[in-house]
Amino acid sequence: MADDLDQIFVTIAHSIVGLFPGLWQPVVSAIISISAIIGVFASLFAVTTVFERKGLGRIQNRYGPNRVGPFGFLQPAADGIKALIKEDVVPRSADKVVHFLAPLAVVVPAFLVYTVLPIGRNMVLADFDAGVLFFFAIGAATELSVFMAGWSSRNKYSLLGAMRAIAQMISYEIPLILSAVTVVMIVGSLSTTQIVAAQAGYHAIGLPNWFVFTPWGFAGFILFMIAATAETNRSPFDLPEGESEIIAGYYIEYSGFKFALFFLGEYMGMFAISGLGITLFLGGWHAPLAALEFIPSWAWFFVKLLAIIFVFIWIRGTLPRLRMDQLMNFAWKFMLPMALINIISAAIWHFMPPGYERWLVGAAIAAVSYVLLGLGLMHGKKLEKRTYRYAE
Amino acid sequence: MNLVFAIIAAVTVAAAVAAMTLRNLVHCALALAVAFAGIAAVYLQLGAQFVGFAQLLVYVGAVAILVVFAILLTRGSEQPQQSVLSSGWAAGIVVTLAVLGLLVFAIAKSSVIRSAAPTQPDVTVRQIGEALMNKFVLPMEVVGLLLTAALIGAVIIAMKEEGKK
After folding, report:
1. Can you name the CATH fold of B1-78?
2. How many structural domains are present in chain A?
3. Which positions in chain B touch A162 (Cβ < 8 Å)?
């Protein structure tokens, strides 16, 4: 019974494909998987916008949307209709073709990367031999689309926003990939399904065999999620938008549904990179406890995804935006050396015999490098309680 | 020649032609990025997954951005007033034909096309990695050293000189 539920979507897809003649089956199978991914994650996007606005409202001591539908949960439908019927304003001096193509170039790669995410047992659209590389290769194409949006608008704020976004994305892509390299080293494969398979099983003390529960995996996961926050332009790394400085960054000249597409692409990118973080470090679709394995694998993936989204919303409501120099210093003086040390730590873990010694060594490397790099970043800065002259 | 290859080839060639003939430099750079992606698609269609993804990552993700930055930081994105064709186009055609003739001659003489088409090897990323780390470890290290030297050189050039004001 549990197995039936676990494989229910796979079974349904197979039975639908079985209705078609042999020649059509690969095409039909692909169309079913693609429409499932687009449907599920676009609905998740709608739900997340409500949760985000309500969660931020809660953090900031206000209500958030509560008028449309029960508890305001039909707000995304209203927003979508509003975006569709709004006038599409294109600046007169804008580069029409590039201006039109940019939102599409943001959304298409954002959806493409879901191809390699295993969202359940036997539920991956394409199991590439170089799946992780595919994810990063497609993700890198987003930078160009951000530039297209910023440049084609012919607006200095949007160009500034695009430049900020590209500088930030290039800087944080390096720690992002380097922290993912540790997992690839230990598993010995770039395939996402094999990485998930390597995290099956449980430790003697009941903890699951996930990579986040190793010293290098823990450090790698934290680095990965920080870099992912920067990569998806989420607060506190939302300088490319910077409402108070450059109004809305590279999508300042977009209105109506094109703006909604940017919004969609941003959230899709956030879900996808969280999904990759789950796949690499949080055991993919594996259950956290052996006793909980009766719950279907795809449910675990989405539970973990929603947990990470919750943390993203929490961080957005809590932390102030960084300054540009702080952002760059943090990327190059802390994240990059930390990720490199973490790779060495993973190599030591690989060659030491299993036992508590390698836990101690790994934890010591992570702690010492964190403290030293943190001190280096703080060097020459006066940190004391902020005093206010007028407000108190 | 199948349909998929025909589509990919048409898009790639069209983008390459556009990269050379469009007036606006940024448009040319974007068309060049499309051509890069088309070449990646050709690699993927030939079953070379690793090369295809690496092409996307390096060329579309990094080189295209570099080209765009170089255009914006140097001469701006103003459209040129005169024709995009350079005045020495006649000499250009001669040079192009000469290079084409040389290439055709060299390929026709080579033994590669006379040998039978090799069966497609089933190369995995693991094999590529092992080849890089065992057989080709020295060239890889040399390339790594060269890139590090280039990186440090770039930083030194970009650094402000302290003494001179």
Report:
1. Four Helix Bundle (Hemerythrin (Met), subunit A) (1.20.120)
2. 1
3. none
Residue A10 inside a domain? The answer is no
Tell me whether 0.95 is exceeded by the ipTM.
Answer: no
Distance from CA of A98 to the nearest CA of B (A): 8
Domain boundaries, chain B: 1-78
Q: Could you report the average pLDDT of every consecutive run of 10 residues in chain A (392 residues)?
A: 71 78 79 86 88 87 82 83 84 83 88 86 79 86 85 83 85 89 87 84 78 85 90 79 72 82 87 90 81 80 90 88 82 88 88 80 84 80 74 62
What's the domain range around A350? 76-377
Tell me if A170 and B64 make a contact (CB, 8 A cut-off).
no
Which chain B residues are closer than 8 Å to A143 by Cβ?
A: 61, 65
CB < 8 Å & 24+ apart, contacts of B29-38: B29/B64, B29/B67, B29/B68, B29/B71, B30/A98, B30/A144, B30/A148, B30/B64, B30/B68, B32/B64, B32/B67, B33/A144, B33/B59, B33/B60, B33/B64, B36/B60, B36/B63, B36/B64, B37/A141, B38/B8, B38/B9, B38/B11, B38/B12
Mutation pick from B28, B58, B65 vs chain A, by most beta carbons of A within 10 Å, is: B65
